[in-house]
UniProtKB/TrEMBL annotation:
Enzyme Commission designation: 2.8.1.-
Enzyme class: transferase
Name of this chain's protein: Sulfurtransferase complex subunit TusC
InterPro entries in the cross-refs: DsrEFH-like (IPR027396), Sulphur_relay_DsrE/F-like (IPR003787), Sulphur_relay_TusC/DsrF (IPR017462)
Organism this protein belongs to: Limnobaculum xujianqingii
NCBIfam families referenced in this protein's UniProt entry, alphabetically: PRK00211.1, sulf_tusC_dsrF
GO MF annotations, alphabetized: transferase activity
Keyword Transferase on entry: yes
Family per similarity comment: Belongs to the DsrF/TusC family.
SUPFAM superfamilies: DsrEFH-like
Amino acid sequence: MKKIAFVFTHVPHGSSGGREGLDAVLATSALTEEIGLFFLSDGVFQLLPGQQPDQVLMRNYIATFGILALYDIEQCFICTDSMSERGINQDAVLVINAIRLNQQQMHEHLSGYDVVLTF
């Protein structure tokens, strides 16, 4: 069974990439259990609670990340270097329980996946 990584690198609002990525994750979970989610660069904003997408006329899908556990998707990682670069506290509460790794650790974990999809 192939290991599939989903890498989120864009802010959650202004494009449909985050929502499309989440939809792809949920659909893929029916085919394999070897899924990892990686949030780096501006993708770290995907996991911040309290966002108000309706203010920019976008749908709120951020809370949907909370159902990942129901799909047995537990390998979720967030880049602490990206968080720091964007002024996000290392101890910030996130919408999911993501493992916090530095940039080097993120790349090491990603190298163990057969397929990498970026959103």
